[in-house]
Amino acid sequence: MIVETTTFLTLLGGGSVTSAEIALAVARAPILVAADGGAEAALAEGILPEAVIGDFDSISPEVLEALDPARVHHVAEQDSTDFEKTLARVSAPLMLAAGFTGRRRDHELAALHGLMRFPQKRVILITEADAICLCPPSIAIDLPRACRVSLFPLAPVAGTSSGLRWPIDGLAFAPGHRIGTSNMANGETVRLTMTAPAMLLILPLGQIDALIAALTGPATAWPGAGATGGG
Known about the structure:
By secondary structure, this protein is of the alpha/beta class. Helix content is 23%, strand content 30%. It has helices at 19-28, 38-44, 61-66, 82-87, 105-117, 208-215, 226-229; strands spanning 3-4, 9-12, 31-35, 51-54, 72-74, 90-91, 95-98, 123-126, 130-134, 138-142, 148-153, 157-162, 172-173, 180-184, 189-194, 199-204. The strands form 3 sheets. The chain has a 10-stranded mixed sheet, with helices on both faces. Strands 10-15-12-13 form a 4-stranded antiparallel sheet. A two-stranded parallel sheet has the order 1-6. The model is unreliable at 225-231 (pLDDT under 50).
């Protein structure tokens, strides 16, 4: 592990990110780790990353020169993304990840893939409009009536629900077969269970604090690390 903390952690990538998104993350997760080009966005905001991790194919020599070499960690292998390289080498109770979506859709899809590779880590992707996480085995989250609750499978998965306008019990979800986008909360606590770490939970960004509270509750982490998820 390069960074281990009992505090929430902000991960910053080199994708599309605004000052407001960085501020939102750092206010809740004050220790910042940059994935490759995310170091440039951090320094532009006057934030010195605790560590910079990546293959350094998207960071300028000037930024590398400005950083303390002790904070710079080059990972040369090309079998994983910078997001995955970073997730494998940091440990925290919860991570807020900004700058991993937008600009290029292939990078955005790769970030979603990264969530699935590290199911035992609690990670929330922050976008301009959404907060996205891999749905844990069980979660209970308090959401206002008519709040958008979208579920999108990355692989075959099933589950149960209460507190949704359209229950998911008995449904078989899979890409190209059935998805669960644009569902909504009915004003009760939304409770979800999943059979596998393969379902994205997508909420409006304004509900990020409710999502943080829910993810740090009991029974909200997939057990085991495995070869690709251990870090």
